[in-house]
Automatic annotation (TrEMBL):
SUPFAM superfamilies: DNA repair protein MutS, domain III (SSF48334), P-loop containing nucleoside triphosphate hydrolases (SSF52540), SMR domain-like (SSF160443)
Keyword Repeat: no
Xref: SMART domains: MUTSac (SM00534), MUTSd (SM00533), SMR (SM00463)
A Pfam entry, by short name: MutS_V
Name of the protein in its database record: Endonuclease MutS2
Family: Belongs to the DNA mismatch repair MutS family. MutS2 subfamily.
Protein function: Endonuclease that is involved in the suppression of homologous recombination and thus may have a key role in the control of bacterial genetic diversity.
Quaternary structure annotation from Swiss-Prot or TrEMBL: Homodimer. Binds to stalled ribosomes, contacting rRNA.
Highest taxon of the lineage: Bacteria
Length: 792
């Protein structure tokens, strides 16, 4: 699909694959990355893209996927395939861990059925054969050794070995003590020589102990003897060890035979682990480059919005530099973009960005561009980038370019994307320009899509007159004399040769002589291009300013709509509350009037009784008027009658009779606490009362504060940058609260650094009686920089 073969290197696609390899956890995953190449089937590309997108969503929003052990299963399965072979205990242990990882992955996605459909397709209809795990666990322990209980014979042999070793050790200890008492031994204890336990004897006493000399010291003064009676016991141990080895081999062979029918399933498990590791690596790389999934189309069109070169983006991370986004459209109307402009203005980066992102999408990789970007599918990608001169092939620079142009014109079609950098260079411009124009005409006639960069004026003129070709230029600030790295389509750009030469400091006489040597027509064309570039820059800046003002206007409009909605809602709430209060007042007033009339009737209009009832009615009416704010004029208290109200004083709210404690005083407003509730009242709406039942109220207030603390407490403490003592004190406070409030764990963020703070914190936690265990955070979310303390 890609011509020539080194085009993938020049576009940077090989570097992309290398970076993805570093994200893999297993060699099979890295092998799959090495096989990445552009595809041409729509359904295959779409599936690869969706798998990477779903895994990126999983890494960002879900709990980590259990991929702790990804040992290759295929080599073990191939070894099992050979009849009579057996897997070692270490190989079986690796297989066991990988199978447990497989089952954990399948279980993970089964719990989220339907949430990641394209990832679920990786193991669709793949069964969980727990019998394999049970068979291995019957033989291999948690440390990867063969269990003593794997067979009755092995258990018996192991017991006999222990017994024989104990007897041999007991006997050699007796001989050693006797030799010591006789003064025959050299300095030192029992030692191992040739795998046998020996006694160090002085050379002059070596004939006094019957046995076999296994070694002597460098000076010859000490010999190492294995006593005769111990020798026979050690031989017995060795014979038993041989028996044990034969029994272990028999058990492993029997287990391997039991696994042989499951070879196809084991290979499927291997493929699952490899693909999961592969897709995970692609998703992790997408997170690094801020990759998104574009819209995939079956036609041959490209529409990139805010696209950035991924390698450039990674190089600029951690620096003050930013990548200027690229916006470009290649479609049926503008099939080939002819990009011109100054040197070092970003023409080649623009073209390489388009080519690299196209290769990435057709290889199933997410790209650093907006999700509104649209990418079509090409059957071929032809690129002519850089200098391919070859001494071996007797090719000059221009000959190499012409060889590629020959291939382009013969094999390109409407499903081909071409990328040509510095079109026509390498020979006399008087001839190179027309040849390049003729080649471009042929390619345009074939309906190819692509990008061409050039400085030739004839190609700019040709592009402005030919259907399907579109001029474009990289914007250049001709005042500051620096490139802006922004692609603008519609007009060609100037090379700014004289302006750049003048800025560099080329002598004015040389520049004047050069201006006189170029034709008057070329001068006018170049001047016109510079003027167009200036006008284009001004239009771009005006459009940017208008867009910014439109965004500000839209933001203000949104805020105004939210404020209006808030006011309308508050208005409805206030009206509803006022109506409810009015109904309560009317109901209470009616009840009061009825009671007054009834009282007058009962007293048979007795003068004094009637007078008292009327006075009660007037007082009640006045109280309601004060509460609802309906009175016209509220009598002011005399300065001498005012009672000062301070924080912690207790007051009664007029109208409701509720008692509350003052927690804040601000001018004429009081913030009151009634248990866990808070309210604001005017100073004139409350009456200070005595501090009766102070203990009860204090207890209620304390309970409210404790409730607030429980509600606001988070079992997480950040001690990065603190000294050790301060960090320990802070952690101790949080631990006490977490234990008191019944939290199961405490998250401690201490950072990685040199690991000193982490060590002191963990030493402290191990001494804390309520801490059951300590664990690191998952590597994807901080790893050793975060410690979890699980509480009993």
């Amino acid at each position: 699909m890609v011509y020539p073969d080194n085009a993938v290197d020049k576009l940077g696609f090989t570097d992309i694959k290398t970076l993805i390899k570093t994200k893999c956890l297993s060699q099979p995953g890295r092998d799959l990355v090495a096989k990445i190449q552009p595809q041409t089937r729509f359904d295959q590309i779409d599936r690869f893209l969706r798998q990477a997108h779903e895994f990126k969503q999983l890494l960002t929003n879900d709990t980590p996927l259990p991929v702790d052990h990804l040992y290759p299963i295929r080599p073990l399965a191939e070894k099992v395939r050979v009849a009579g072979s057996f897997l070692s205990a270490e190989e079986l242990y690796s297989l066991l861990l990988s199978l447990k990882t497989v089952f954990a992955i399948i279980g993970y996605f089964n719990e989220r059925a339907g949430q990641y459909p394209n990832l679920e397709a990786l193991f669709e209809h793949l069964p969980i054969e727990k019998g394999i795990v049970s068979a291995i666990e019957r033989v291999v322990d948690a440390k990867g050794n063969v269990k003593t209980s794997a067979s009755p014979a092995l258990a018996e042999i192991t017991a006999n070995i222990a017994k024989a070793e104990q007897e041999a050790r007991k006997r050699i200890d007796q001989v050693f003590r006797a030799a010591q008492q006789a003064g025959w031994t050299a300095d030192g204890n029992l030692t191992i020589r040739d795998g046998r336990l020996c006694i160090p004897l002085l050379a002059e006493h070596k004939r006094k102990v019957k046995g076999w000399i296994h070694d002597e010291s460098a000076t010859g003064q000490t010999v190492y003897i294995e006593p005769e009676e111990v020798f026979h016991l050690n031989n017995k141990v060795r014979d038993l060890e041989f028996d044990k080895r034969r029994e272990v081999i028999r058990i492993l062979t029997e287990l391997t035979d039991e696994l042989r029918p499951h070879i196809p399933l084991l290979l499927d498990y291997h493929n699952l682990l490899s693909k999961v590791d592969f897709v995970r690596a692609k998703a992790l790389f997408a997170l690094d480059i801020e990759g998104e999934m574009p819209e995939l189309h079956k036609d041959t069109s490209i529409s990139l919005h805010n696209a950035r070169h991924p390698l450039l983006l990674l190089n600029f991370k951690g620096t003050q530099q930013t990548v200027v986004p690229l916006n470009v459209d290649i479609n049926a109307q503008q099939r080939i973009i002819v990009v011109s402009g100054p040197n070092a203005g970003g023409k080649s980066v623009c073209m390489k960005t388009i080519g690299l992102l196209q290769l990435m999408v057709q290889s199933g990789l997410l790209i650093p561009a907006d999700t509104t970007s649209k990418i079509g599918i090409f059957r071929q990608l032809f690129a002519d980038i850089g200098d391919d001169q070859s001494i071996e092939s007797d090719l000059s620079t221009y000959s190499a370019h012409l060889s590629k142009m020959k291939h382009f014109t013969e094999h390109a079609d409407a499903k081909t994307l071409i990328l040509i950098d510095e079109f026509g260079t390498g020979t006399d411009p008087l001839f190179g320009g027309p040849i390049a124009e003729a080649v471009l005409e042929v390619l345009n006639g074939k309906g190819v899509r692509g990008v061409v960069t050039t400085h030739y004026s004839n190609l700019k003129v040709f592009a402005s007159n030919a259907a399907g070709l579109e001029n474009a230029s990289m914007l250049f600030d001709n005042v500051a004399m620096r490139p802006m790295y922004i692609l603008q389509t519609g007009k060609p750009g100037s090379s700014y040769a004289f302006e750049i030469a003048e800025k560099i400091g080329l002598a004015p006489a040389v520049l004047q002589a050069a201006r006189q040597k170029i034709g008057a027509q070329q001068k006018r064309v170049d001047t016109l291009l510079v003027d167009l570039e200036r006008d284009k820059k001004a239009v771009y800046e005006a459009k940017a300013a208008i867009a910014q003002k439109e965004r500000q206007l839209a933001k203000l409009k949104e805020e105004n709509e939210k404020l209006q909605a808030y006011l309308d809602e508050n208005k409805r709430t206030i009206i509803h509350k006022a109506r409810e209060e009015a109904r309560d007042i009317i109901r209470n007033a009616n009840k009061l009037v009825e009671n007054t009339i009834a009282g007058i009737k009962e007293s048979q209009a007795e003068k004094e009784k009637t007078k008292a009832l009327r006075k009660q009615l007037d007082e009640e009416q006045k109280r309601h008027a004060i509460t609802t704010g309906q009175q016209q004029a509220k009598p002011k208290q005399n300065q001498s009658d005012e009672v000062a109200i301070n924080v912690d004083d207790w007051v009664k709210i007029i109208g409701t009779g509720n008692e509350a404690q003052v927690i804040s005083v601000s001018k004429n407003n009081l913030v009151l606490a009634m248990g866990e509730l808070r309210t604001v009242q005017k100073r004139t709406n409350v009456v200070r009362i005595d501090k009766k039942n102070k203990q009860t109220r204090s207890r209620q207030a304390h309970q409210g504060r404790v409730t607030d603390e429980v509600a606001s407490f988070r079992p997480e403490v950040d001690v990065r940058g603190m000294r050790t003592e301060a960090a320990i004190n802070q952690i101790e406070k949080y631990l006490d609260r977490a234990v008191m409030m019944g939290f199961p764990s405490l998250k401690i963020v201490h950072g990685k650094g040199d690991g000193i703070l982490r060590k002191f914190i963990r030493d402290y936690l191990r001494k804390y009686g309520e801490v059951a265990r300590i664990e690191d955070e998952h590597p994807d979310r901080g790893g050793e920089g975060i410690t979890y303390a699980y509480l009993e």
